[in-house]
Amino acid sequence: MSLPKEDAAVLSARWTDGVLLKRDVFSTVERGRFRSDSGEVDAVLRRLDEVPWWSFLLARHLFAREKHALALAKGLNVGPELLWAGRRALVRGFVDGAALHLAKPHGDLAYFRSAKAALRRLRRAGICHNDLAKEQNWLVGRDGRAYVTDFQLAACFEGRGRLYRILAYEDLRHLLKHKRSYVPEALTPRERKILAKKSLAASLWLATGKKVYRAITRGLFNFTDREGGGRRLVNDAPVLTALIRKNPAVRDTAIVAFADRRSGVGLYAFVEADQAALEGQLRNELTAARGPKPPEHIQVVHALPRDTSGKPRTEILQLVAMNQLDLIEPMMRNDQDRAFLKDILEQRKNLRDRFNFEANLPAS
User: Fold this and answer.
1) CB contact burial 93-122 (16+ within 10 A = b; e otherwise)
2) How far is CA 284 from CA 244, 295, 299, 329, in A?
3) Nearest alpha carbon to residue 2 among 22, 20, 28, 24
4) Are 259 and 252 in contact (CB under 8 A)?
5) CA 319, CA 256: separation in Å to the nearest integer?
6) Residue 23: pLDDT above 90?
7) Distance CA 139, CA 42 (A)
8) CB count in 10 Å sphere of residue 135
9) Environment class of residue 250 by beta-carbon count within 10 Å: exposed (0-12), middle (13-18) or buried (19+)?
10) pTM, two decimal places
11) For residue 17, which phi and psi values (nearest 5 degrees)?
């Protein structure tokens, strides 16, 4: 399914491809550059031309909701600005920051104060986001402030009727769940009461509607969205991890997902070992095992970046796999992390999407 001629003409003249961020049955999302009226800026493009026919009507509905909400939120400074919108494609501004599940703002009370202020601005504009339970829809800006993205499920209201109040309450409750994960000691007594009390609509949704939603998306649409990884990250990655660890030369491994222009979702395995030539051996072993399809990329590194508990920092690995290198620098916490970054930049495997993000990284 191709884009309308008028959409294609605008993108041909004003859009420069960069990195593929996500592709599923509802849209393709890319990061690149857009020539706006005030000059060229970093931006994100959502397009429907690669959506299969059987999900197109729902995809178009979600697209229309996002376009309407972004237009209404213009100037609120709570998320990406709508730069241009056509019939089957839209371009929104790029927010310089990392998703909540990548940034992990433990102990950062100022961030959650900013998030609450952002929700208040959305409420005043009559916008309920409706998908804030996902950490990937909350961004931690480079300025430390909270931003929200992905308005495909947003609902816009002219008044403050009962449905609006229910949805706004659920947006707040989902924010407080994230606050409980990262700064639980800062929860107020009132916030704890909100967390303990789901709205009746939310309870009914969990008991009925959510089961139907999962049956449709995971059954009919074969769609699973765990941090954008889909079924391969959920089902295949654990099996592949166990197979890789059987090799005696492997100390540890971590597998993350990335958007792939050919297959939709690819897997990228980072393997901690000393033998650089181990990659070919591992690929042969995975193929011979006749298990899940081997990862598209296997990269041997001397050391994986780790958190204070010793677990691999998959949030950093995820950004490397996606070529979002400019977002990594603020997440470097120590010399060991910086040494890891220097070690992998020139050796990384996913070079199909190229973009000059490295220019923003400091010299090692």
Assistant:
1) bbbebbbbbbbbbeebeebbebbeebbeeb
2) 11, 12, 14, 34
3) 28
4) no
5) 9
6) no
7) 16
8) 19
9) middle
10) 0.81
11) -60, 150
Task: Name the phi and psi angles at 259, rounded to 5.
Answer: -75, 135
HSE on the CB side for 346, CA within 13 Å? 4
Judge whether 227 and 101 are in contact, CB under 8 Å: yes
Q: What is the spatial distance between Cα 19 and Cα 29, in angstroms, rounded to a whole number? A: 9
pLDDT, tens only, 27-78: 999 999 999 988 999 999 999 998 999 999 999 999 999 999 999 999 999 9
Q: Does residue 142 contact residue 327 with C-beta atoms inside 8 Å?
A: no
